[in-house]
Amino acid sequence: RGRCARGDMAGVLAWFWNERFWLPHNVTWADLKNTEEATFPQAEDLYLACPLAFCIFMIRLSSRGRFIARPCAKGLKIQANGPQKAQSNAILEKVFTAITKHPDEKRLEGLSKQLDWDVRTIQRWFRQRRNQEKPSTLARFCESMWKFTFYLYIFTYGVRFLKKTPWLRNTKECWYNYPYQPLTVDIHYYYVLELSFYLSLLFSQFTDIRRKDFLIMFLHHVATISLITFSYVNNMARVGTLVMCLHDAADVLIEAAKMANYAKCQILCNLLFAMFAVLFISSRLGVYPVWILNTTLFESWEIVGPYPSWWVFNLLLILLQLLHSFWSYLIVKTVCRAISRGKVSKDDRSDIESSSDEEDGPPANQKHHSSATNGTNKNHGSNGYLTGGSYPDEH
């Protein structure tokens, strides 16, 4: 039975690593084995990314503590205050923890009769209680500072590395002599570090507060990780370095804008966000399709020709372009609101729930409720791109 299971596994691996899928015509895995003269990418090289991703995740958690980010936050007078706490109520707390965090209309009416509270007050209690579990401004600042530090480092590294490469100036160099392009230590380090970081972001999605764009971000992380893995395994690493560096540029600015927002430096926040918006839209709706998609779709077709994994790789790149378009729409929407209101304001990606009357939409004749239950963070003053956690910062 054990031999049979091993045989089945060997068959699955042989099917998965089929050379006709991964490699161009007449190229085999044996042709890309490492020799004394040249080193080529090997799939097992990426195993290092898993323990490294765990280390990055732990470093990220520690950065929220006393080591670097917290002293900087205190220097900027950022307090550890979170959203306003909901008033104590044993019945509602039991419903919240044991039954549902989002009660339907029927349950709200039942609780209203049981507590002699109006429905709007109960709705706001649940909203406050949900917000109560969300990170404080200090935690958000520490998170953004950690991401800003990584993006600044990896973008600087990418620029310094690519300045020495011929394919930065002539993208056709990505395909000459493909796939027999030797792997350098710089490319290997660049890939493993980027893959580790995005694996850590994927892990953290399941431990952080669930955001409205959870599925979009999950799809983005999966596409990013798949692109990094695909381009490394079939040695499209040259064009992969261009994709990674291009995407890291805007991520530096958005994390800086978040930190300025948490520090209540509104003018600096607006300036950084404007710079981010211009760079994001121009790079991902302009440079990316003209520079990256042009070489992966047309120049590679002309020099190398298509093969199965080539199609998958390009489909992932096109999927990334669709995500770019979606996020560009959100950015433009945020900019339009900022112009109309005079500052960057909350948008649909905010992870602090609105407590406006419009959201509740109750009948006008409902009872007046205590001021202690007023909505939390109604004037939080930051949009979804500037409040905490995840932003489309992947490739």
Automatic annotation (TrEMBL):
Function comment: Sequence-specific transcription factor which is part of a developmental regulatory system that provides cells with specific positional identities on the anterior-posterior axis.
Every TLC domain range: 139-340
GO biological process, one term: ceramide biosynthetic process
SUPFAM superfamilies given in the database record: Homeodomain-like
Regions crossing the membrane: 187-207, 214-233, 269-291, 311-332
Catalysed transformations (reactions): sphinganine + octadecanoyl-CoA = N-(octadecanoyl)-sphinganine + CoA + H(+)
UniProt-recorded name of the protein: Ceramide synthase 6
Gene Ontology cellular-component annotations: endoplasmic reticulum membrane; nucleus
Organism: Tetraodon nigroviridis
InterPro entries: HD, Homeodomain-like_sf, Lag1/Lac1-like, TLC-dom
Annotated region described as Disordered, given as residue ranges: 346-395
Positions with biased composition (Polar residues): 371-385
DNA-binding region(s) from the entry: 94-137
Keywords: DNA-binding, Endoplasmic reticulum, Homeobox, Lipid biosynthesis, Lipid metabolism, Membrane, Nucleus, Transferase, Transmembrane, Transmembrane helix
Pathway(s) this gene product operates in, as recorded in its UniProt entry: Lipid metabolism; sphingolipid metabolism; Sphingolipid metabolism
Subcellular location: Endoplasmic reticulum membrane; Nucleus
GO molecular function list: DNA binding; sphingosine N-acyltransferase activity
Residues annotated as signal peptide: none
UniProt cross-references to PROSITE patterns, sorted A to Z: HOMEOBOX_2 (PS50071), TLC (PS50922)
Domain Homeobox, first and last residues per copy: 92-136
Top-rank lineage group of the source organism: Eukaryota
Membrane topology value: Multi-pass membrane protein
